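Technical appendix A lists one of the benchmark inputs used to test multi-chain prediction within the project. The record comprises two sequence entries:
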Amino acid sequence: MNPIAHSPHAHAPASISKVMGTVLLALVPATLYGFWLYGWPAIFLWSITVASALIGEAFVLRVRQRPVRPALLDGSATLTAWLLALSLPPFAPWWLGVVGGLFAIVVVKQVFGGLGQNVFNPAMAARVMLLISFPVEMTMWAAPTPLSGEHALSFAQGLAITFGGAQWDTMASASLLGHVKTEFTRGVDLLHSLPGYFEAGDALSGHRVGSFGETSAVLLLLGGVFLIVKRIITWHAPVAMLLGVALPAAIAHAIAPEHYLAVLPHLLSGGLILGAFFIVTDPVTSPNTSAGMFVFGFLCGLLTWIIRTWGGYPEGVAFAVMIMNALTPIVDRYIKPRIYGRDRKGTALPAKKGA
Amino acid sequence: MMFFEKFFGGLRGGVHPEGKKQLSAECPIRSVPLPQKLYVPLQQHIGAPAAPVVKVGERVLKGQLVAAAQGNVSAPVHAPTSGVVSALGDHVAPHPSGLPVPTLTIESDGQEEWVALAGIEQPLELAQEDIAARVAAAGIVGLGGATFPSALKLNLSRASGVQTLILNGGECEPYLTCDDRIMRERAAEIVEGIALIAKAVAAQEVLIGIEDNKPEAIATMQAAAQGSAIKVVAMPSMYPMGSEKQIIQVLTGKEIPAGGRPADIGVLVHNVATAWAVQQAIRYGRPLISRIVTLSGGAMRTPCNVEALIGTPVEELLTVAGGLVPPVARMVLGGPMMGQQFTDMRVPVVKGTSGVLALTASETGQAEASPCIRCSTCVRACPIGLLPLEMAAFIRVSDLASSVALGLKDCISCGSCSYVCPAHIPLVHYFNYAKGDLAAQERGKLKQEATKKLADARNERMARIERERAEAAAKRKAAREAKERAAKEAAEKAQQESSASESA
């Protein structure tokens, strides 16, 4: 006999695994494109990152004496590792994926209490940890070598890069943001360093240097719009984050174009699109309300722009997201929905007789 | 600020559960064969239970008063058919606990012999107070499910003035079609009932709100209301549109102040079925002894709508619907969003029973709860503007005060949050548990205060008695001493006198 159940006696066709599954689905186009663009090393790196995250999750759940299977099947660990993998340099060595995947799941997620309890976005925290600990490996960019192209890497070459630590001649390139930063330190301003380095078309299609999943803005955007249509995320945080970068960039660029990048390269560079649609929309580490999400997203964008512009690192999405993750409880404390029959301060509305 | 609110979702909250109304919407209201035994609970309303005025073994007529209202908030109960009162004892309650409650059992004699009814030819000429008094005497309560005594609402509203009278034909609960059918089939009676209610409270404006998923009901009511001041308004179909707070917000743009009543903003809301009951009570003098019940659900063989006598056991209704199609995952009284599960098929239909649902496992969608991922779907679904996930988190750690600070007491228990939660967390269960716990705490506090008062009074009384006793003792002692002194003096005097006389 079933125990007596409380109402409601109906349920929307929704579940956590469905939510996670939809997000994973939204990542598939950009990921497959990344596989094609960078070949076997990217495939190996992605697989090993996801696998180590799942193993880490299973291990901790076993230690915590929690059911392992349902947690692995809910897709949350896969999603974390997947996002982390997309933000890694495609030719990174295998152990970077292992260390990152394990750190994201074991330290950032499970130590804080598991699903729903982590303060920081596990993928971004892991990326930041890797960037600080292994700055060389984390900035070894490679120019795209599409699987179907003439420079395609063979399976064996892929193995050699990911697992054998082999160097490749395409690996010398720098990403746009990195290039700009380096040139600045040499005293070369934007007007001289940028020409020939940024083509909006390449940025949209992803045919450029960068992390393997971040390069195709179009496909990531497509996935993001799909999630909004599917009502998995709302537009507030993504739009606000893009605005948070675009507004200061537009103003600064208008004032001093030789010092400040224009809006378009900002929007299409680095992890911004991935961050706006897949990272700041992470439910666990972002605010509760739509207004809160807007504020959160905007500040993530603003911080990203500030770090990119004046910070020591070329890219700022991961740092900005972590800082804002820490501020999420504050945002939630001050931005709450107005309760029916009360004003914004929570005082009951006055009774109006007859009128 | 208005812009801000609009920008970030002015039409707040609500969910769109699958309607499932097509299962029973086209089934005209059917009658139920007269049951042999009717189980009439003494409490079918909010407030104090009615007190029986008949004895076991007594013959009662259909519509005869069998239990009288007690106190300010209460409603009388009438015999649903003629027969003999065979028991006054406990019977399984229409409540998830299935615990027994005081119930009158009436064994029907099959005669359906009515008590003498005092109908009125020209009901609209009645005085305001008389309308309310007749509604009270007929035992009418809110038939939308809240079962608040209707006459009390009329009296409260007459005192504070009513600008807008709203008739709730929203019926936003999935499956239920009882209000839909009554509007389609008894529109003229409902309109007369509305006119009576409007007269009773001197309403300036009368609106009937009907969800736009009931076009036939809208058309029928519009036709019936033609030529009157009553306006029929089609409302968007959304749960919980039929909730008092939401229907007022949608139709008038006003909000009931927190902790207040609709009367505070000059609004009165009654269900359309209640208006029908009011018309029956006043034109024909018939008390509330039957209601329309929807029998539906994936495990109900032939879903339909029936007019059932109050006290009819659910098992008798099920035979009208052709029985159940196993496997039945859950039996529910009322709608699926706010209704209550029951397990004993002998539970009777009461005044608040709007539906009996037999649901399959796929319809209930029950699943184990998993951890909250803070997706805030519940925040977006809440029609009140609460933070269900935060409130539940506080309740989990027994921090009721923090939950109250987030608006626990404003929660209307509509279940929208639980319905949409992808983690299947029983959010509204937490809230109702917490509300119950708070009520118990408050009762405990009142009891403690009362006990303390009594104890203080006793101490004071004991002290006073002690004091009085001491005073009395002192007085007695004083009196005794005075007496002794007097006797001594008298003796001395006598001695002196005697010695004087001796010396003389």
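Chain B has 15 helices and 17 strands. The first strand of chain B starts at residue 30 and ends at 31. Comparable benchmark entries are summarised in Table A2.
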